[in-house]
Design a protein that fits this description.
single chain; 188 residues; alpha/beta; six-stranded mixed beta sheet; three-stranded parallel beta sheet; 8 helices; 9 strands
């Protein structure tokens, strides 16, 4: 009996990265993204925020998409401004943008099996951030848990959307592809 094919539903960039990181899955994966990531058309807010980075005591990136969308407007990360990220995908995106532990203070969950807002909050010194400003760089929509938790510790939070999520268009080709995938023995 043959092994099932693995259908990767992540946005295309993360899906491709996943497939590259899992060479043992070569030939057994199918990328069928169920979410698309789009840059915002008006980037004036990003340009303005890049000029204001020194106002913040911490910058939080919620995803690799946030990192890539924001950092393409940053020529040099100010070493004095710490960064917080959720997981290893975001750490890799920082490295791809020439930000390392040697040129920036980076906070992220130590528990690699649980990389979310709740776990990131455990890594931050919220008492030290009290009365200061934190910038959260994210998509147009998303959970408010992190921002709300920071605000509850008297931290001023500014959120900056830098991308938007959307469902892909399910044209005739995609509908047929989905039918085929659903008829096969796959792991999603």
């Amino acid at each position: 009996m043959s092994l099932p094919q693995i259908v990767v539903t992540r946005p295309i960039e993360q899906a491709r990265e996943f497939v590259k990181l899992a060479p043992a899955l070569a030939g057994r994966t199918e990328i069928f993204s169920l979410l698309e990531i789009h840059p915002l058309e008006n980037r004036s807010c990003v340009t303005e925020m890049v000029a204001r980075l020194n106002e913040f005591s911490l910058v939080v990136f919620v995803s690799p998409n946030a990192i890539n969308a924001f950092l393409r407007s940053v020529h040099h990360w100010p070493m004095a401004i710490p960064i917080a990220v959720m997981g290893e995908g975001s750490r890799k995106a920082l490295v791809a943008n020439s930000i390392f532990e040697t040129n920036a203070k980076i906070f992220s969950p130590r528990n690699l099996l649980k990389t979310d807002s709740e776990t990131l909050l455990l890594e931050l010194d919220l008492t030290q951030l009290s009365g200061k400003k934190v910038l959260i760089i994210r998509g147009e929509t998303g959970r408010e848990l992190l921002a709300d938790a920071l605000r509850s510790h008297d931290i001023e939070v500014v959120t900056l959307p830098v991308y938007r999520r959307s469902a892909p268009v399910f044209d005739t080709f995609r509908q047929q592809k989905l039918r085929i995938l659903l008829q096969q023995r796959n792991l999603w």
